[in-house]
Inverse folding.
C-alpha cells in the first residue's frame, strides 16, 4: 500500500467584499461570498449553491442509517480536542493551512473520499492511525506530520495542527483517527474536529471536489 499526498502550501483568498458587488444571493457569511483554495494544483472557489430551492438528492439526504456502525458521535471525542464548524474550518484554511502550519484531513477510507471531498483537504484514512505507534507505516505518517523520534520517544513540538472530518455526526472514521493520535501522544491542542463533516457541508450547499486519480 502506498501513501501519496502532498503537504504543499494551499493559497487562499478570502473575498471580504459586499455581496451586492458580486450579485450573490447566498453568501457563506455576511461580507464573505466565497473563499478561493488551491486544490490539486488548481484554484477552487468555495461558495454556496445559489439556487435557493436546491435540495440534496445524494446519500447525504438520508436521515437514518443502521447503528452500529453508523452511530451518532459525541461532541467531545477526546479531552482537549476542540470541535469546529464551517466558518472555523474556512478560517483554518486561511490561516494555518495557508501558512503551512496545519492540514485539513479527510479521514475517510478511499472509497468514500473518491466520491467527493472538501477543497483543500488531503486524504489520510483513519486506518493508518489505528495500527498503533509501533507500526512502521504509522511512524512514517507521524514523521510526515512533523513529529520526530528523539531519545527513545516521539517529539510533537513541530507537528502540524490537524483538522479532521469524515461523513458527518454519524460517522466514526475521524473520531477513530483522533483518539488513536491522542493515545500516541499527539497534542490534543493541535487537533480539531469538524463533526458536521461532508453531510453538513453539503446541506449548506458548499463546494466539493472530486479528487483526481
Amino acid at each position: 500500500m502506498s501513501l501519496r499526498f502532498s503537504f504543499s502550501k494551499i493559497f487562499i483568498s478570502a473575498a471580504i467584499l459586499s455581496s451586492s458587488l458580486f450579485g450573490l444571493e447566498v453568501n457563506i457569511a455576511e461580507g464573505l461570498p466565497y473563499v478561493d483554495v488551491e486544490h490539486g494544483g488548481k484554484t477552487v472557489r468555495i461558495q454556496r449553491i445559489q439556487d435557493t430551492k436546491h435540495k440534496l438528492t445524494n446519500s447525504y439526504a438520508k436521515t437514518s442509517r443502521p447503528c452500529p456502525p453508523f452511530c451518532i458521535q459525541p461532541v467531545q471525542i477526546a479531552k482537549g480536542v476542540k470541535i469546529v464548524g464551517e466558518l472555523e474550518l474556512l478560517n483554518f484554511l486561511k490561516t494555518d493551512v495557508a501558512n503551512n502550519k496545519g492540514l485539513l484531513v479527510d479521514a475517510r477510507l478511499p472509497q468514500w473520499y473518491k466520491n467527493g471531498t472538501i477543497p483543500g483537504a488531503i486524504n489520510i484514512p483513519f486506518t493508518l492511525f489505528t495500527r498503533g505507534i509501533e507500526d512502521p507505516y504509522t511512524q512514517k505518517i507521524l514523521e510526515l506530520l512533523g513529529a520526530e523520534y528523539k531519545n527513545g520517544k516521539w517529539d510533537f513540538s513541530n507537528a502540524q495542527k490537524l483538522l479532521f472530518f469524515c461523513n458527518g455526526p454519524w460517522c466514526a472514521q475521524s473520531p477513530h483517527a483522533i483518539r488513536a493520535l491522542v493515545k500516541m501522544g499527539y497534542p490534543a491542542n493541535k487537533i480539531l474536529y469538524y463533526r458536521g463533516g461532508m453531510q453538513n457541508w453539503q446541506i449548506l450547499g458548499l463546494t466539493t471536489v472530486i479528487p483526481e486519480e
Remarks:
- The beta strands are 13-14, 35-39, 42-46, 82-83, 102-106, 122-123, 148-150, 153-155, 161-165, 191-194.
- The two ends are 15 Å apart (CA to CA).
- Confidence is low (pLDDT under 50) at residues 1-21.
